[in-house]
């Protein structure tokens, strides 16, 4: 054990665990960044995005090193793109700003069956009428 650490945290400081600790910090920072960017989205998109991000980060907690790196790269690209789009939207407001990007055929072909299912569920959720989103912060939300 390292002096001044509890038994549970000591494992993070073992030589083989430093990379995992660094990745955990990167994951937390990215997660927080995405949620901060989502604050600038319209309420319904924010509710959908926050829920999806929460589920995806939970689902990928135990990913292998390669999967984790790819996961982080994709979510960092998402955060960069969305931050740029939200900034443009704030700088020059329009009625309906487009957010996100189209999936390329190459990326779609590399999805697993589970990812295709998740994408379909996301599409179904995103195309619901606004009042169906579970967003208690939206003044038009009815219980």
What characteristics describe this protein?
single chain; 6 helices
H/E series? HHHHHH
Percentage of β-strand residues: under 5%
Low-confidence stretches are: 1-15
What is the assembly state of the chains in this entry?
single chain
Average pLDDT number = 78
Radius of gyration: 18 Å
Structural class, from helix and strand content?
mainly alpha
Tally of individual helices: 6
Query: Based on DSSP secondary structure assignment, what is the total number of beta strands?
Result: 0
Alpha-carbon distance between the two ends:
51 Å
Largest sheet: none
**Structural shape:** globular
How helical, in percent, are the residues? 55-70%
Structure in words:
This protein has 143 residues and is mainly alpha-helical. It is 62% helix and 0% strand. It is built from six helices and no strands. It has helices at residues 7-10, 18-38, 43-59, 65-91, 105-109, 113-126. It is globular.
Quick structural summary:
This protein has helices spanning 7-10, 18-38, 43-59, 65-91, 105-109, 113-126. The protein is mainly α and 143 residues long.
């Amino acid at each position: 054990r390292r002096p001044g650490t509890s038994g549970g945290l000591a494992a993070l400081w073992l030589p083989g665990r430093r990379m995992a600790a660094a990745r955990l910090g990167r994951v937390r920072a990215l997660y927080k960044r995405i949620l901060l960017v989502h604050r600038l989205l319209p309420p319904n998109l924010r509710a959908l995005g926050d829920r999806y991000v929460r589920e995806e980060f939970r689902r990928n907690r135990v990913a292998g090193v390669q999967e984790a790196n790819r996961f982080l790269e994709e979510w960092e690209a998402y955060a960069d793109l969305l931050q740029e789009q939200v900034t443009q939207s704030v700088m020059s407001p329009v009625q309906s700003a487009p957010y996100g990007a189209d999936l390329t055929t190459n990326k779609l072909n590399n999805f697993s069956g589970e990812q295709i299912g998740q994408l379909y569920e996301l599409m179904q959720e995103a195309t619901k009428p606004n009042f169906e989103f579970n967003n208690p912060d939206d003044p038009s939300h009815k219980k």
